[in-house]
Amino acid sequence: MLTFTIRRLLLAIPTLLFISLVIFLLVDFAPGSPMSQIPLTVPPEVRMKIIEAMGANEPIFVRYLLWLKQFFWVEPLVMIDGIFGTAYAEGMQRIVSWQSRSPVMDIIWERLPQTMTVVGSAYVIGVLIALPIGIYSAYRQYSWFDQFGTLFAMIGFSVPTFFTGVVLILVFSVNLGWFPSIYDTTLKVTDWESFLKQIKQMAMPVAVLALYNAAQISRYMRSSLLDNLGQDYVRTARAKGMPERTVVLKHVLRNSLIPVVTVIALGIPTIFGGAIITEQVFKVNGLGALLINAIHGSDLPMVQTLTFIFAVLIVMFNLIADVLYGMLDPRIRYD
Amino acid sequence: MTDTSVIEKPRSQWADVWAQFKTHKGAVAGLTVFVLLILFVTVGPFIWTKDPTFINPDAVQMIKTRNKPPSWEFPLGTDQLGRDMLARMMKGGQVSIAVGLVAMAISILLGTLVGVMAGYFRRLDGPLMRLTDLFLALPLLPLLLVMVMLFRDPLARAMGPEGGTFLLIVFAIGVTSWMQAARVVRGEVLALKEREFVLAARSIGTPSRRMILRHILPNVVSPIMVAATLGIASAIITESALSFLGLGFPPDFPTWGRLLFDGVDYIQQYPERVMWPGIAISLTVLSVNYIGDGLRDALDPRIRGR
Questions:
Q1: Contact with chain A for residue B172, Cβ under 8 A
Q2: CA of A282: which chain B residue's CA is closest?
Q3: Measured distance CA(B89)–CA(B47) in Å, rounded
Q4: If you average pLDDT over every residue of chain A, what do you get?
Q5: What is the band of B114 on the pLDDT scale with cuts at 50, 70, 90?
Q6: Nearest C-alpha of chain B: how many angstroms from A314?
Q7: Worst-scoring range by mean pLDDT, A50-59, A258-267, A281-290, B136-145?
Q8: Domains detected in chain A
Q9: Which residues on chain A are in Cβ contact (under 8 Å) with B147?
Q10: Which of A78, A165, A294, B236 can pair with A281 through a Cys bridge, CB separation 3.0 to 4.6 Å?
Q11: How confident is the model at residue B305 (pLDDT cuts 50, 70, 90)?
């Protein structure tokens, strides 16, 4: 298992390098990059100065290597400095946003908590809703509850999140006035009242994302439990005279959770991508909004870094899912 | 002589599939809704002949016909520039569904190509599957946004705002969504290669090209069809999400996602302007998903006939 994990970790390095190259080239070679957006009336020497100030006059591979060094060497050093108060990264050049002229990673760290509170709690709630629904629909297959669960899941992944979000705004903010339609990021939770306010403003974005996730995960849970319910060991357990509760909730559930756990792990990075839309609907000032802003402002370093961070998350959670699968299911041996 | 009429005609595979498909209530309902929606966007404009982009040149008239509630003249009302919402819904639906179909076609073509190549030729299997894994690890929505942002203006300049954007979006969605189909097709091809009929065909010296076209492809049609239906649904959602983020089609070119995006600004006064396109997108995707569900059941020989 350990050798497998190490091998996968080593394999992840070329994958990540390749992805970073793709992202870098795609963004850099594109005809719409900001270099071509400097007005033609700007005199050539000023234009050269502008490009130089952006650091865009170097050949492409130099900039790629520089970016790699900044991402994998300078930024971790800065992080270490921040934690331990050392000065390893002093004087080193960091990835700087073209829009705000401040280091990209600082802005990302600023925005991360908003995304994590909304997206994280939505995912947890989604999983907590999905598991019981999936278990009960599988246990009572083709019952009215199962039919209803199927419909719920179909609606959950057919209705786009931006539409559910807008409908929720329409019902709960415009008509009923229960929740605010715009997420206030400056709110500090200090006492009971501000806590209530925070809950209120989180309710709708979390509900949208939770519904979407619950729909998918409940399907996986249902089919996995159905697969296991027909197995021989279930019959044996029942024949031993075990209470039905123990059979389903201990024997069957434990076995059928194995694939579901990996699906949950695999879904964590995609939720960051899905949250881009939800953040836009509710004006949450998180990573998704940051990406959209950077795209509209042609802020290439920010776009490259953010996209690459998403890619790192995907690769990382793929690895975690594989390792989890091997750990949970002793029948699976990778070596 | 008369005996021949007694013998039942051999049933074709597709008749069986259709018979099984008909028993799936959700799939039949989905197919009905989907056909109705297609009729609405294709035949509809011939019946309801108002121009979706018509803005009354007379400013007074234009202001008078702005933001109208539903009436006989404008069954779904008008928007903030006095354009007829029903006509815009039809036009928008045409674009949205066209994007879904063409993007699906591209992704299925790519996916089948990669899948068959990887499954059939052992030497290509490793590299092609590595490529698929790499694509699966890409963050797709951010990449799509970046692609649209970077290539939209140059393409629009080269090919006109509508054609350029259409091509870009369709191509971008197709290129980022072929991986599932490729994996499924590869698995099927690998299994098919072990079958006797493939061995028989090979032993009489069938060249690879004909082998793939005559023997392999017809046998992987069912998983491809299921992937294709589900591909339409996700392509429509992706397109409307791009439009919703303001990175889709230009403003005067309606699609359902764009109409929804435009309606959000007026949500307090005219909520129906958000509801119509939203319901249209959701209904289309829901019906296509149900069709896919039914197809999967109907094409699975283990379930068929049960």
A1: no
A2: B264
A3: 14
A4: 81
A5: very high
A6: 6
A7: A50-59
A8: 104-296 (1.10.3720.10)
A9: 26
A10: A165
A11: very low
Q: What is the 3-state secondary structure (H, E, C) of chain A?
A: CHHHHHHHHHHHHHHHHHHHHHHHHHHHHCCCCHHHHCCCCCCHHHHHHHHHHHCCCCCHHHHHHHHHHHHHHHHHHHHHHHHHCCCCCCCCCCCECCCCCCEHHHHHHHHHHHHHHHHHHHHHHHHHHHHHHHHHHHHCCCCHHHHHHHHHHHHHHHCCHHHHHHHHHHHHHHHCCCCCCCCCCCCCCCCHHHHHHHHHHHHHHHHHHHHHHHHHHHHHHHHHHHHHHCCHHHHHHHHCCCCHHHHHHHHHHHHHHHHHHHHHHHHHHHHHHHHHHHHHHHCCCCHHHHHHHHHHCCCHHHHHHHHHHHHHHHHHHHHHHHHHHHHHCCCCCCC
Of B141, B146, B286, the CB nearest to A158: B286
Which two tokens mark A151?
A: 């419909």
Residue count of chain B: 306
The minimal CB distance from A306 to the residues B142, B233, B274 is found for B142
Residue A262 backbone zone (phi > 0: left; psi -120 to 50: alpha; other: beta): alpha
pLDDT in tens, B261-290: 888 877 777 777 788 888 888 999 989 888
Q: What is the 3-state secondary structure (H, E, C) of B164-190?
A: HHHHHHHHHHHHCCCHHHHHHHHHHHH
By the CB < 8 Å criterion, does A318 face chain B?
Answer: yes
Q: DSSP letters of B261-304?
A: HHHHTTTTT-THHHHHHHHHHHHHHHHHHHHHHHHHHHH-TTTT
Q: Is B185 on the interface with A (CB under 8 A)?
A: no
Query: Model confidence over B12-38: pLDDT tens digits?
Result: 777 888 888 888 888 888 899 999 988
Pick A314's closest partner by Cβ from B139, B149, B247.
B139
Interface test with A, best of B132, B141, B153, B155 (most A CBs within 10 A): B141
Query: Would an 8 Å CB–CB cutoff place A230 in contact with chain B?
Result: no
> A with B: how many residue pairs have Cβ under 8 Å apart?
123
On whether any CB of chain B is under 8 Å from the CB of A21, the answer is no
Cα distance between residue B32 and residue B38, in whole Å: 10
CA distance B218 to chain A (A): 29
Q: Shortest CA distance to A116 belongs to which of A279, A5, A241?
A: A279
- Would the CB atoms of A166 and B274 count as touching at under 8 Å? yes
pTM to 2 decimal places = 0.83
Chain B contact set for A280 (CB, 8 A) = 244-245
- Using only the alpha carbons of chain B, give its radius of gyration: 24
